[in-house]
Amino acid sequence: MRKQFRDLASPEAARETIASLELTPDTEMVALSDARGRILAERIDAEMDVPGFDRASMDGYAVRARDTFGADEADPLELELVGEVHAGTEPDVEVEPGTAAEISTGAVMPPGANAVVIVERTEERDGNLVVYKAVAPGDSVMPAGTDIAAGARALGPGTRITPREIGLLSALGLDEVPVRGAPVVGIVSTGDELVRPGEDLRPEAGQIYDVNSYTIAAGVEEAGGVPKLYPHAGDDYDEMERLLHEAAAECDLVLSSGSTSASAVDVIYQVVEERGELLLHGVAVKPGKPMLVGTLGERSAYIGLPGYPVSALTIFRTFVAPAIRDAAGLPEPQTATIEGSMAVRERYAEGRTRLMPVGLVTDGSGETLVYPVDKGSGATTSLVEADGVVEVHADVEYLAEGETVTVTLFSPDVRPPELLGVGEDDPALSRLLDHAPSPRYLAVGSREGLRRLRDGVPDVAVVAGDSRSDVDAVELGSWTREWGLVVPADNPADVAGLGDLVDSDLRFVNRDTNSGLRTELGTAVAALAEERGETRHELVEGIVGFDSGLKAFESPARAVLSGRADVGLGLRETADALGLGFVTLGEQPVRVVANPDRTEKQSVRRLRELLADSDDVFESLSGYESE
Amino acid sequence: MRKQFRDLASPEAARETIASLELTPDTEMVALSDARGRILAERIDAEMDVPGFDRASMDGYAVRARDTFGADEADPLELELVGEVHAGTEPDVEVEPGTAAEISTGAVMPPGANAVVIVERTEERDGNLVVYKAVAPGDSVMPAGTDIAAGARALGPGTRITPREIGLLSALGLDEVPVRGAPVVGIVSTGDELVRPGEDLRPEAGQIYDVNSYTIAAGVEEAGGVPKLYPHAGDDYDEMERLLHEAAAECDLVLSSGSTSASAVDVIYQVVEERGELLLHGVAVKPGKPMLVGTLGERSAYIGLPGYPVSALTIFRTFVAPAIRDAAGLPEPQTATIEGSMAVRERYAEGRTRLMPVGLVTDGSGETLVYPVDKGSGATTSLVEADGVVEVHADVEYLAEGETVTVTLFSPDVRPPELLGVGEDDPALSRLLDHAPSPRYLAVGSREGLRRLRDGVPDVAVVAGDSRSDVDAVELGSWTREWGLVVPADNPADVAGLGDLVDSDLRFVNRDTNSGLRTELGTAVAALAEERGETRHELVEGIVGFDSGLKAFESPARAVLSGRADVGLGLRETADALGLGFVTLGEQPVRVVANPDRTEKQSVRRLRELLADSDDVFESLSGYESE
């Protein structure tokens, strides 16, 4: 039943197909106060003169110019003062020959008068005006329409409305203006397991929060569209069909992001085929291969996005956002792309265009370095590790280190982090980073952190424990933290040390092998083995769960808190913070070390200062000491 | 009573004083859907694991890894199929030794199982599962917390929220987030003569629409503040005082823009002195000398802006917007400044910093040229002629032609026009420009247009009439238009030609001397004089109002329409459009000529195409013909 699309479309064909969709919405009227950032839909001609009257442009006296002929300092003239005219009032006086009327800046020239003598060249004496200077017709008078004349072209169609255009429109008295309509973009979520943020989540039933709908909605808004989220239909396919029809009727474009359920995809297919036309299925790009493009009903277009968050945002940014911007009449912001050079060599040979998510970092000389992230992991965290996308064409086999590439940022508002750190997960570090200027920290563990520092991408690595390594690095500062075994609040199993863990059946939760805390535990186990005359392997075998490995410093403690484990590897600080018991096994140093080429980078210098000046942070945490 | 501020403050001192004002608003909670563009006020740590359960990452079968030991293509194993688990549902099956459960991507791993065999490596046979591949514990399983672990640092304070951050926040289930509050900025308008756009205007009473309030409100919004417009108090000073108190209580900052009334300024002075502190009065900048900075009440700051629209926006952009952005935590957008080179030499020697409004244009080689506009005219139209401001320091005597300057744009959204045209005002031209890409056209008249073209700033000039000139220019296209005398609909005075105007007392309205239409009229008068054997001067003396000069092509006709004049100089098209009578005096050519260095500029080529291809525009207008 499905149409056959044997060949994947090229990215260029996909762009053309999407550009051919009719998204352009009707012109709409918006209030002047909401017009900023919109695009004027029509030419605005002035319907009135500005000013609408002959206006005094100085404080002084309205006169007939002819009456002042010959007046000068040596030989002043006298005129009879017949009244005054203030700004914002209608003159109730006429200037007959031989008379003058006091007038303030902005006031209407009274009948008869054709010039203003500025106040500095006059004197009032006995109710008369003494004039010390002759004026010509029109002196200090701004005739009606001087600023904007009725009938004149004021602003053209396609003009982006910024504060200054708001000013001109106000001058014309307009309180609403015709602007390009913003395309309405429906977002349909199709996963049975998805729950809206803010609602209760049942993880035991496999529920997760809906990430793509909100990310894409924000992207739609940023591109000048109006996002409309539809409630999700769960596994009710009739309801899903109904929602798609509803969205097709209400929106200029409908987006959905990849469902894990093949049946859901079938429903979408069927609706697109029955109510519109499937234009394209499958594009030769990675990610995004299964991308679907079609029409839906009379007036709507449909684009199906991949399911992984970074992939969905990548495809949205590359193919969909430009179409929304076009429909809204908005230019691509200048800050939407950035040039940089590859920090590492990256091979690629899949024969289709790769949209490579990348992170950015600035090197010591201020150059932007680009490095690949998220190789298809699907992790949500990659969303904030990746700054944008590099499009690598199908015939490119590799990108050399140092090669210049263009990065399309995920948002024109994305700025590269000022500091890129990698390494151990630590609560004191997390607090320090609150004061660092725009940091990005990837908690990949001490071992992986050092490896990455050696590869030259990050500015700094954070290493816990005794880390003899051959990585060339400059120490910026250090502290110590107390580590050990986290147990329930009242320590029901009376764990007193590592030996108790080995000798019991207690369920233990370890950290991952990159963690400096796990390395420290391994060292302690080895020492205990030597003391007992056993092998390290024998001891490890006695610990139920030693091979488990959770990624974050609080995770084992949280497993204890929830009753999923009896003992967890962790920090005194964590145990205290969560109200759990703690059995100390020692102290370990945590060191912050920098790439030697980056020590003069401003953010690195700032981090060094922070480390030298943050005793209060360490004092506020249990088991911590600054060194 | 006023404090004496004998010396004007330096611009640096003004910046410091404004920076010292306490504008930073409290943290506020906003819905996730409104969070884009805001600045995170606090660190967000994950409160939960993502995913919150051990998750199958492929479609297949959940098994105990140990049970698959030794399985391969040649020697498959069989397991008993005991059920299935779908994404979004709680497993109702336990995987005992020797059994397997079907599982879909995203589903919860059932109790007992610790790995997934992907569907491609299995076969179902008689209700049993045939496994062709051994798996290790954890294969195709994403453990709880792999993506984000509870307790991990997710986002730091100061993070700008873009779509990707929205994604991470959704993953954490947050439907509202703490963001830096946006400073509330009150705008008080003080002119007696000001009327809000959309309301009725009484020009005869000297009323004009309020320009600054709306311009500044849009600027406040753009800088990340929340503008709050207060109704204006007219000339009721008690009411003005009351409004200032109200605004001081409700806002973080109160702005007003210069009133023409000295009394209004006095009221503001008094309120600032009584309820706060006057910190600064007068800054050594042009414009903006009388700028006022102070505190107002307990919590608000006050800044008084100049009255002319371009001056108000200049001072706002230079001194106030940075303070609002700081308070909102927003960085200065990268597009807020642009480099260019001076198109003309500009002298300046006033001994104080000049904030010079400038326009931008691109030359033939793509370089940005900068030229001064609005030398204190106060015209609202200057708002859309000026793109930004160049700060010229007090000790700079002149800027040389070609000198590089930095322009602070009036808005980060301002882009230089792609086409800069100057010259004659014409309705056909106005329609053509609707199709030109981002044009700016200054209707300065034919004569002034040619002068500016010679000076090298604009791309094109539009010249009406017989224009022998020594300006080196390339003609892009031309048309003719019928011109003559516009009279009331029924031509009550039976005007048949120029002679009737000379011989009558009819009130005539002319165009300005830069207009090609006026030059044409002058030529016709000279011809008539010769015919009659009189001097040109004698004929002109006979025309009541010959020396008047309105700026726009419709203005004289509108004067006739309103009864302010009996005859106006104009076009047949205008007379027809306004339903007036018309007495033809001839046809005149209108030519579009380009700067020879700009003919290859894309916008100029586009204009040439438009001229060649717009017969429909000329046909739709009365008395027009394309050439």
Model description:
Chains A, B: Keywords: Molybdenum cofactor biosynthesis. Chains A, B: Pfam families: MoCF_biosynth (PF00994), MoeA_C (PF03454), MoeA_N (PF03453), PBP_like (PF12727). Chains A, B: This is Molybdopterin biosynthesis protein. Chains A, B: GO terms for molecular function: molybdopterin molybdotransferase activity. Chains A, B: It comes from Haloferax litoreum. 2 copies of one chain form a homodimer. By secondary structure, the first copy, chain A, is of the alpha/beta class. Chain A has 5 domains: 11-23 and 183-328, Molybdenum Cofactor Biosythetic Enzyme, Chain A, CATH 3.40.980; 28-50 and 147-179, Molybdopterin biosynthesis moea protein, domain 2; 55-142, Beta Complex (Molybdopterin biosynthesis moeA protein, domain 3), CATH 2.170.190; 335-414, Beta-clip (Beta Barrel); 421-626, D-Maltodextrin-Binding Protein, domain 2. The first copy, chain A, contains 16 helices and 36 strands. In chain A, strands 29, 30, 31, 32, 33, 34, 35 and 36 form an 8-stranded mixed sheet that branches. In chain A, helix 3 runs parallel beside helix 6 and helix 4 crosses helix 5 (262-275). The radius of gyration of chain A is 36 Å and the shape is elongated. The model of chain A has no long low-confidence stretch (mean pLDDT 91).
